[in-house]
Amino acid sequence: MLLDVRNVYKSYQLGHKQISILRGVDLAVKEGEFISIMGTSGSGKSTFLNVLGGLDTPDSGSYYFNKTDMLNLSDTERSWLRAHWFGFVFQTFYLLSELTVVENVSLPFLYNNADSKNRALQVGNAIEKVGLSHRKAHRPLELSGGEMQRVAIARALAVQPKLILADEPTGNLDSKSSRHILDLFKELHVSGTTIIMVTHDEKVAAISERTLFLNDGCLL
C-alpha cells in the first residue's frame, strides 16, 4: 500500500469557535491508482489534500506514506520527502512570471539534491511529456492558460514523484484546455503514476478509477 490514512481528524479555530473539517477519515491507496475526491465547497477537500501532501498536520490519526510515518517527522524531514516524493498541481498555476518554462519546471530542484546533469534531463523529459518542448524558452505571460497548467504539471513531474496531488487542476481553464489536461492525466495514469485529484466536476472525476466523496468530514 502506497498510502494508508486511518481515523484522521482536523479542525480549525475561528475566533472562539472550533470548526471540524475532517472527522475520522480513512483512505488506502495502492501504487498506480488514480482517485478523485469530490465534495461541496467547504467540505474539506483541499484540507485533506494538504494533509496527504504533508503541507498540513492533522489533530489526530495516523498517516503512512510508502511505509513512512508522516506524522512523526520533523519539519525538515517532511520538506525533504515532499521535494522527492510528491508532485503538486493546483488550480492556480503558481508560476513565476519572470522565469522561463525551463526555469519554472526546475524550481523543485531547489529542494532536491539531484545533480545538474540528471536535473536537466528530468526537466527536459517532463516538458516533453506535456508537449511543450517548443515553448521551453517562453515565459508564463506568453502562454495560454492550458499551457501554463501543463507547465505546472511538468514541474510536478520533474522530480519523478511517487504521487501527484492535484487540486481542481482544470478549475481555471476553458473546456478545450481542460480536455487536454485530462487527457494528460489519463496518459500519466496509464504510465503508472499514482494520482489523487480533488474536483467538484463529475465529468472530471469520471476519468479516474475510483471516486470518493467527502461529506460532513467523512470520506465515502
| CATH C-level of the domain at 3-94 and 161-219 | Alpha Beta
Amino- and carboxy-terminal Cα gap = 19 Å
Strand content: 25-35%
Largest sheet: 6 strands, mixed
Query: What is the element string, with H for helices and E for strands?
Result: EEEHEEHEHHHEHEHEE
Low-confidence stretches: none
Number of strands: 10
Helical content band: 25-40%
Main sheet: strand order: 6-7-8-3-9-10
CATH superfamily (homologous) name of the domain at 3-94 and 161-219: P-loop containing nucleotide triphosphate hydrolases
The total of helices stands at 7
Report the CATH topology name of the domain at 3-94 and 161-219.
Rossmann fold
- The dominant shape is globular
**Alpha-carbon Rg, integer:** 17 Å
CATH architecture annotation name of the domain at 3-94 and 161-219: 3-Layer(aba) Sandwich
Judged by helices, strands and strand pairing, the structural class is: alpha/beta
